[in-house]
Every structure is written in C-alpha cells, then in structure tokens.
Amino acid sequence: MEKIKMVAPCIFGIEGIAADELRRMGCENVTAENGRVLFEGDANILARANINSRFSERILINMGEFTATDFTTLFDSVKALQWENYIGKEDAFPVTGYSINSALHSIPDCQSIIKKAVVERLKSKYGISWFNETGPEYKIKFSILKDKVTLMIDTSGEGLHKRGYRRSSNDAPLKETLAAALCDTARIFPDTALLDPFCGSGTILIEGAMMAAKIAPGLRRFFAAERFSAIPQTAWQQERMRAQDNILHNIEFTATGFDIDKSCVELTLANAAKAGVKNYVKATVRDIKDFTPPEGRCQIITNPPYGERLLDVQAAEALYKTMGQRFTRGSGQKYCIISPHDEFEKFFGDTADKRRKLYNGMIKCQAFLYFKNKEKF
C-alpha cells in the first residue's frame, strides 16, 4: 500500500508537542502548521496515530490540497481526486467543513459542490448513477483558509479527546488533549508525584497517570476507519497489541487531587476507575486555603476557576492571591498553572520561569511554569 498523507488537527499552541509525538511513533515527513500537523505513513501508522496520540484532535486522510476562488475550480479539483481509493459503491460520504478569509465563503454551497464532484467522480469509476449510501460512513471534511482548499476523510469518528473514561464531568472540564499537553509541558515521568488542588473531574490526574504508565489513550475505543475496506483489520490488531505491550506496570507514579466540592472528588475517582488508573489516583475534599505542597520533588499541575468559566474576575484574582500564598517554592516543587488572565503573575505574586500560549476551547490562555528554586518578588 502506498504511503497515506494524513492531517492531525490540534489545539493552537501545542502543534510542536503533537509533531514530536508523531515523530516518535514513526510517522514520516512530519510538519507542524498552525492548528495542525501534516505527516505520512502506512495503514499501521494510521491505526497507531489514532490509538496512541494524546494531543491530536483526530486523524484525517489528506486527499488533496489546491487553491480555488470560484466554484468551477473547486468542482474540477475535487473531482480530480482519487476518492475511489477509499469510498465504495455502497458507502456513505457526508460532507462538512469551514471557510475562513476566502472567496468561497458560503459553507452550504461549498458542501453541495464538493458532494456533487465526489459523486461525479465515483459515478465515472463505478458506472452507476445512484448511491444508496447504506455502507460504512466516510466523513469528508473540507477546510478553506485564504483560498487554500484541503479535502480530507475522517478516520477517527468521535474526536480523539473522547478517551472513553469521562462519561460525565463537572461544570467546566478541561479538554483531555489540553490536559495531556500540560502534563507533557510540565514533564511527567513514571516516578512523578502529581498534584492538582482544583481537580474537578480529574482530567489532569488521569491524563498524567496514563502518560506515566504509557497507557495509549485510544486503547479502549472504536475508530471510524476500522470499517474502511482500504485499512486492513490486521493493522488495528497489531497496533492494539503493540500499545498493550508498551504499558508500564508497578510504577511509582502517584496522582493526588483536591477539590472543595465533594461531588468533584467522587467524579475524579469514578473517572480514574473507568480509565484503568485507579491504583495511581487519590482525591479528597480540601479548600485551596488549606493546601500545602508536600516536601520533596513533586509536580503541581492545575486549572483554577477563572472569570470566563466559573468565577467572576475579582473572585478569580482573590483565588490567585491565595494560591500564591500556598504554592511555596522549596525543595523540588514545580508548578504548571493554566490561566487566561493577562495579569495572573501579578496576583499570584511570582513571575513564571517560562510561559506557553495555549487555547482552552476558544479562550486564549497561558501555561505558567515555575520550576526554579528562588524567592518570590
């Protein structure tokens, strides 16, 4: 089978992390762009990326890219792509997408033209005039950015942040892919002591535990491409066995969560059990005012409530001051705090050693990293 060109959309700000992860998997020609990573590989790599990627939002087959400023060019360019390599006579192929800063700005019109072009291509290849679309679903996705069109087929189905352990959550959960990126940025190892004083539904703790134990995030779920005739079932079987063999057992990792809300603590423990990491995760009810970081080496990663999310801005600022008083720098404590507040450091009372720009949904944030032993200003 020829190399498959693929696209992995990801959260803005973590493209480099996602690209490094795909390189470690053995993906070829990996290139990070704004909000996505391009790469190539065979059917096993397609399955491996779906099962193992902690940071990608989904894995898409890149059918082709071209520039189009009118519907005739769009139709002809889409029709020229080899859709028959994947889509069969009975298969369903709905079309969705978006257009930003482009001449072709009408989404319904673009959907209609692309659908018609794919139909015409398949009609000419299969010699049939009607498609029942009762077979496996091949979701065609398009993006048009500054007149550059990308046509893709979704191989993931549900987004890759759907690990399967979080059936329910608290009021404002942190997306699993972003929680994993925070853990990667802060450096999680098999012997890390991880703490989250605002654990919520436990996402940071669970993602940290899965990362430390090398548990593939997609090991327990199904993917759309498992029904694709062009992707052999052996690829999925081999990659699941490979992921299973990579799991580390009996590691010294610990994840401890605290929350003022008892229901959040209960939810954290329930989600950890579903994720298969209950042996590593503990959680108890505790107010941030009573939090004291343990002596010795530990990693505190947290997503405190903030104005746009749960608290008004003044309450969030007061919370940051309390955090600054409780989060002491000592013998090995490190902190990674995500916040959208432009003056977080002012209220926290300490200048970060490093910052990383990220997006939590549509909210622009920064991850503030504290890892040096020094006195606060």
Reported for the largest beta sheet, the result is: 7 strands, mixed
Q: What's the CATH topology name of the largest domain?
A: Rossmann fold
Estimate the global geometry from the Cα principal axes. elongated
The value of Rg in angstroms is 23 Å
How far do the termini sit from each other? 60 Å
Weakly predicted, low-confidence segments: none
Q: How many β strands by DSSP?
A: 14
Strand order of the largest sheet: 2-3-1-4-7-6-5
Secondary-structure element series = EHEEHEHEHEEHEHHEHEEHEHEE
Q: Identify the CATH class of the largest domain.
A: Alpha Beta
Relevant CATH superfamily of the largest domain:
Vaccinia Virus protein VP39
**What is the CATH architecture descriptor of the largest domain?**
3-Layer(aba) Sandwich
Helix/strand/pairing category: alpha/beta
Domains, number: 2
Strand share of the residues? 15-25%
Helix content: 25-40%
